[in-house]
């Protein structure tokens, strides 16, 4: 979404992580996605690095404004919420507690977001900021683990915020299905 927003022309290569092409194995020790290879050969294999790179190229609506406030919320997302989200999504692999226990632990962060959205249109203030674009995918994952439960959950502002992003032209323009890229082929121009 950040690449599209920042109007950065890219060549998309959809890959299967179950059958990783040799290119991924050569360019990134993480061997996961996303990976961005800049024209100068620089490899970025962290989502936040790619977002920052894109926004530093072009940020017409100033998503990077108040980046310090965004950074604090993103850190809480990445290091407090995401571990609970993973256990909630894959609770079978974490039999120490029930799925609802992991959902409740995840809810502590959702309460914070819902509260912030009660005071602001977006997570930081009245404008889209870095935190919105970085946290949205994780809230989307959480919501779709049990959509019926989430739809009834006590997070009205968060649900409205999520719906805004799910219905946004930006999100829908990048969430297209693409054929799996094969070594030697060109990617899809985006």
Identify the notable features of this structure and list them briefly.
190 residues; mainly alpha; Glutaredoxin; Glutathione S-transferase Yfyf (Class Pi), Chain A, domain 2; 2 domains; two-stranded antiparallel ribbon; 55% helix; 4% strand; globular
Low-confidence stretches: none
CATH topology of the largest domain: Glutathione S-transferase Yfyf (Class Pi), Chain A, domain 2
Shape: globular
Whole-Å distance between the termini?
A: 11 Å
Quaternary state of this entry equals single chain
Under CATH at level 1, the class of the largest domain stands as Mainly Alpha
Query: What does the average pLDDT come to?
Result: 94
How many domains would you count in the coordinates? 2
- Based on the structure given, which CATH architecture of the largest domain is correct? Up-down Bundle
Computed structural class: mainly alpha
Q: Can you tell me about this structure?
A:
The chain has 190 residues and is mainly alpha-helical. The chain has helices at 2-5, 22-27, 47-57, 67-89, 99-119, 130-145, 147-152, 156-167, 169-174, and strands at residues 11-12, 36-37, 43-44, 188-189. It has a two-stranded antiparallel ribbon with strand order 1-4. It has a two-stranded antiparallel sheet with strand order 2-3. Strand 2 (36-37) and strand 3 (43-44) form a beta hairpin. Helix 4 runs antiparallel to helix 5 (99-119), helix 4 packs parallel to helix 6 (130-145) and helix 5 (99-119) packs across helix 8. The longest helix is centred in the middle third of the chain and has 23 residues, at 67-89. The model has no long low-confidence stretch (mean pLDDT 94).
């Amino acid at each position: 979404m950040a690449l599209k927003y920042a109007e950065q022309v890219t060549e998309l290569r959809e890959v299967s992580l179950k059958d990783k092409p040799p290119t991924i194995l050569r360019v990134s020790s993480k061997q996961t996605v996303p990976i961005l290879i800049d024209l100068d050969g620089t490899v970025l294999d962290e989502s936040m690095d790619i977002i920052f790179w894109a926004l530093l190229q072009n940020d017409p609506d100033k998503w990077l404004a108040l980046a310090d406030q965004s950074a604090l919320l993103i850190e809480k997302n990445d290091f407090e919420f995401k571990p609970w989200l993973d256990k909630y999504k894959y609770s079978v692999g974490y039999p120490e507690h029930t799925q609802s226990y992991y959902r409740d632990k995840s809810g502590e962060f959702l309460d914070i977001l819902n509260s912030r959205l009660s005071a602001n249109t977006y997570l930081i203030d009245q404008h889209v900021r870095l935190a919105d674009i970085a946290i949205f995918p994780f809230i989307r994952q959480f919501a779709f683990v049990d959509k019926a439960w989430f739809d009834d959950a006590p997070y009205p502002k968060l649900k409205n915020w999520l719906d805004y992003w799910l219905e946004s032209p930006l999100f829908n323009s990048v969430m297209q299905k693409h054929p799996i890229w094969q070594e030697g082929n060109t990617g899809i121009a985006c």
